[in-house]
Write a structure and sequence with these properties.
This protein is mostly helical. 51% of the residues lie in helices and 0% in strands. The termini are far apart.
């Protein structure tokens, strides 16, 4: 948006896009480092807040908002998180506010930025895809066409492929000879 209020839309060149992504990832990582600073200072653990949709689809920054000592809601769909928040008494004004990346100066929702579908429909598609429901059956229930659900299924798979590295442990030159009990040994090769 220009200073006089005009909105300009055009495809960014790759280098400009990568620079913007690097800057926004830096913002997320800076926030997380502040959390870890205070956690270390107070002998606390850092809690991560990705829900199942965000975690599965890679809607987080590695070593940024994706870093945490534990992630207590990563198994819950976004719709379930809203239900839990309502049950816990989170104020209505917060519950009604659209989820945002809080990254850019112009307002945009997570759907506009990343998901391209309202989270309640995407939760349903993710659930259905993981349980083997055919797109035709899902389309009838959530009010999309079969073709749209097929597109969502392909998009889920594509985002999972792109996000694989976000979930990967660091690569080691050689494995440690005696990992600590209960600590998963990182892979030594790229997948």
């Amino acid at each position: 948006e220009t200073p006089d209020g005009r909105t300009v839309r055009q495809r960014l060149p790759l280098e400009a896009y990568q620079t913007i992504v690097a800057a926004t990832n830096f913002k997320q990582r800076t926030r997380k480092m502040l959390e870890y600073y205070h956690a270390d200072r107070l002998n606390y653990a850092v809690v991560g807040t990705p829900n199942r949709l965000e975690y599965d689809q890679g809607f987080f920054v590695k070593n940024g908002d994706g870093s945490a000592d534990f992630k207590p809601i990563a198994h819950l769909y976004k719709t379930q998180v809203y239900q839990l928040a309502a049950h816990l008494g989170v104020p209505r004004e917060i519950l009604d506010r659209p989820p945002t990346t809080d990254t850019y100066s112009l307002p945009q929702s997570q759907e506009e930025f990343y998901f391209s579908l309202p989270y309640d429909k995407l939760d349903a598609c993710l659930y259905a895809k993981d349980r083997g429901f055919e797109p035709e059956a899902v389309a009838k229930v959530i009010g999309l066409t079969t073709q749209q659900v097929e597109w969502v299924y392909r998009d889920i798979d594509a985002k999972r492929r792109v996000a694989r590295y976000l979930h990967a442990a660091p690569l080691l030159v050689e494995p440690c000879s005696t990992p600590a009990p209960g600590v998963e040994q990182p892979s030594t090769t790229a997948e």
